[in-house]
User: What shape does this take?
Amino acid sequence: MSAYEQDQLVTKTSVILSKPDDWEKWLFVRKDTADRDGLWPYVDPGLSEEKLRKLQHEKPQEKPVWKFKKTQVSEEEQQDIDIEDLSAEEISVYNVWARKYERDEARWLQKEKALRSFNSEIARTIDVRHLDLIVDCADPYSRLTTLKKHLCLSVGERNHQLRSRYRAVCTRPRKANLDTWLDEWVTITRLLREAKMSEVDGNRSQEDFILSIRGLDDNWASTQLQELVKKDQRGEQYTSTADLIAEFRSYYRRTRPIASSIGTFATLGVASGTKDPITPGRSARHVVCPCGESHMFKDCPYVNYSLRQPNWQPDKAVEKKFKKLREADNVVAQVLRRTEAQLRKESSQSENKAQSVISMDDGQPVRRTTHCNAMLQTTAVADEAQPPLLTRWILDPGSNCHVTNTKGSNWTTIKKGESTDYVYAGGVLAQIEEWGEVALSVKTPTGQSQMKLTYVAYIPGFFTSVVGLSRSRPLGVHFDSGRDCLYQGKPSNVICLLQYRDGHWLIDDEKEQAPPPALLSVYATRYPVPKPSRDDRKPLVVSQQEAHSLFGHISQKAVAQLERQVDGIKVIEQPKAPQWTECEICVQSKLHKLISRRPPREPAERPFYRLGIDLVQLRERTERCYNGDL
Assistant: This one.
């Protein structure tokens, strides 16, 4: 369990000891803090009290003055001897000892202060319910040993828990995050190695990890398993488990960039987020509505128009409160605006569903046959950064599968694609990532309508979106190339009007829309555009004054050498580069001291109008100050 204390520049992580599972991490952070001041030998709970070093025993002891006398001094004279009674040689020895004593005492006091601070840190970093355990413990060692007795697992308990965690991590969970599962592998194998348990002897843990990967990536698992078997037969040590996991992470991100990025974002907390900013812990929170009722905004008739009764009349005063709240900048106003946007979206979706929807297939999954796509795009030329039909839907009589290259607002996911789901298109084998439903806006003889496509294959980077006509055959939907339309049953029953362009029939309505950046990036990776020219880039032509500013206000001498020392730049003489005394920025950067010439805020009207006094508190050497320092 971690708590994060964040200031303006640095984020500090401190582990809070609340349960036995936190003991090792908590003790590691405490040991790291103690080692910084050399305190661990004084507080180590693993040592017995006899072997523990006592800081009080190492306190420097002050010698009386009579011990520096070279002559024999009687007991009666010892109390009367002072520094004035020492000879020059004895005073020299006393001064050497005094300087050494002051240094040793300063180091001891610093260590004592760090030990008191460490004692307070122990109380601050444990759960409040465990404070009763250390209420009678005055020093750090007694606090650590007491907490160890109650919260540190025994060897048997620890080994039993480690074995259970190891058996659980060997089975890859279906719905858990991939990065979280891999992190658990790294953690549990490290703990097993520290406990010297048999689960990590030899290459056993590596083999278990490889076997658990099968099903996620069979090719990688088979290759690694073959290499492990070869090294076992030769008696060689295989790659460590942590390095093997790091290698799989890198491989999986390269081969499955979309899937791995989703897992990474989820680990970092980017992909998931709460929809309601005022509902911590996913618990419903009711706010007092401006209408005076205690309900959520979606249940208020002033916000949700669908709840208004036929005889309902709004209150103008309440409407003014809602108007003022919408213009405010606080959490409640954000929730109100978000609720209204969600209600408008739901209302728009319900209106769209109310329109007549044209079904282009029987709604059944595609049969388990090879998904062939005979459509070829012949209009794209080499000098185009993107094909002209990248965001359009093309009717393809030779395709037995619907295909799309982007997931818009009209996309609904049905299931994830399996390793056997793929599409042949122009000699290219494309992997299907998802199956879903799409609602297209099409033209009909009576106006605009919606067309529903089911089990559409989502393939990022595909050069267009395709409607497979063969899937419409069971519904009696046919294509008339002479009239550029689709009809159902009889030729007179036209259900969709097509648009002919560049040798293709476009089924969706004309829309001037730019493709999403993610689609362009994937397309650029799969279909790179050749460079039209191999000529060198033209040099950048700048004046001396522009070069002076462009390269960080360099000197005139540096500007004169710039064209000979830097490739791809040409410097013209006029206007010339300024001297550093002629450039305001150069002058300001060379200033070393800024003297304030401002007059005092309240000039004195008479002598001793204002006095400044430094208060210095002087105490004896061994007497503590107000803050506890000696």
